[in-house]
Design brief:
Elements lengths: L2 H5 L2 E2 L23 E6 L11 E3 L5 E8 L4 E6 L4 E7 L2 E5 L6 E5 L4 E4 L5 E5 L5 E8 L8 E2 L1 H9 L2 E3 L5 E3 L18 H6 L5 H8 E2 L1 H7 L5 E5 L4 E2 L4 E7 L14 E7 L2 E5 L2 E5 L4 E4 L5 E5 L6 E7 L11
Parallel strand pairs: 2-3, 16-17
Antiparallel strand pairs: 1-22, 2-4, 4-11, 5-10, 5-12, 6-9, 6-11, 7-8, 7-10, 9-15, 13-14, 16-18, 18-24, 19-22, 19-24, 20-21, 20-23
Length: 321
């Protein structure tokens, strides 16, 4: 594959195109400054304004959320897996029906694999603009977002109405639901009762991996972070590996499914038959299935990169309580 072909599969951090109207809480105070990015796949945006950088199906989606300090993402759930790692900033994740069942604070490089069946939200508690990168299971990302009822009610008070079709309408702009389309119904009591309320102690051992722990575990070989035999054991339709300078190999490798490379620290040179490219933190590179390639640090200093590989597994863990 030529360098030109591969360049079309690389999204540079500086080229990311944000959407500020992606979700129902785009007008809600406290959530109205967030930016949503859809990097690979269709994503779960409810806005036609959302730009998709790479539309090639991978069996999973890659996205990102950028938020200034004190900005939060409202409580929601997905039908497929959702995993986040922190690219920059300091983030508080919280969960439960009202967001008070438990919480965890993540720093740069930390990763959180959130099971389905639990309402979750997050906020930037750092002092600067921060970015978290997201991996969503499935090509259609589970068909969208399921919001906690109070989120839909709060949004309506600020002019945004979500249709049952998943499309947003802004009443402040004079938009209204079509006559044959109803509003998104609030989740019924029986569905709400199925949502998990795990404590922080229940979540931390099995769903959160810390950057420096992964650095230690990957000193000689890549650490499998998410997978059937991973630090976080799950089969969400993708596996996540963590590679550092000590575990990077000059031996070329390939996968049966598409994979994605996402540096956290340092610069990484990806080489294949026909070309090479250098990635920096915040860049995202899609590697075609079957293409042999090497991934090596290109400069001295700290270096770590996430590698996401598609699998044929289903949606992943649902919280069992």
């Amino acid at each position: 594959m030529t360098p030109q072909d591969m360049e079309s599969r690389i999204v540079r951090y500086g080229d990311l195109q944000p959407c500020k109207t992606a979700f129902i809480d785009a007008h809600t105070p406290g959530s109205d400054q967030k930016e949503n990015f859809t990097i690979i796949g269709g994503g779960v945006s409810e806005s036609p304004d959302q730009h998709v950088h790479i539309t090639i199906p991978h069996g999973f989606n890659i996205g990102a959320a950028g938020q200034p300090p004190k900005c939060r993402n409202s409580l929601h759930d997905h039908r497929t897996a959702e995993a986040f790692f922190v690219l920059s900033g300091r983030w508080r994740f919280f969960w439960g029906r009202y967001g008070d069942a438990g919480e965890v604070v993540l720093e740069k490089g930390d990763i959180f694999n959130i099971p389905t069946g639990v309402f979750r939200g997050f906020e930037n508690i750092g002092s600067d603009y921060g970015m978290i990168m997201a991996i969503l299971g499935g090509d259609d990302a589970g068909g969208g977002v399921m919001w906690a009822p109070q989120v839909i009610e709060d949004a309506a008070d600020h002019g945004l109405v979500l249709a049952e079709t998943g499309k947003l309408y802004d009443t402040k702009k004079g938009e209204a639901l079509p006559g044959d389309v109803g509003p998104m119904p609030l989740m019924e009591a029986d569905e709400l009762a199925k949502r998990g309320e795990p404590t922080t102690a229940q979540v931390l051992p099995n769903h959160v991996a810390r950057y420096w722990d992964m650095v230690a575990l990957s000193d000689r070989s890549p650490a499998k972070v998410i997978g059937e035999t991973g630090i976080l054991r799950d089969k969400p339709g993708f596996e996540v590996n963590f590679i550092t300078r000590g575990s990077a190999s000059e031996r070329a490798g390939s996968f049966a499914h598409p994979s994605v490379l996402m540096p956290v620290t340092g610069h990484w040179k990806v080489t294949w038959d026909g070309g090479s490219a250098t990635l920096a933190p915040g860049d995202t590179m899609s590697v075609p299935e079957g293409m042999a390639h090497t991934v090596l640090p290109s400069m001295t200093g700290e270096a770590a990169i996430y590698q996401i590989v598609g699998t044929a597994d289903p949606a992943g863990l649902t919280w069992q309580g």
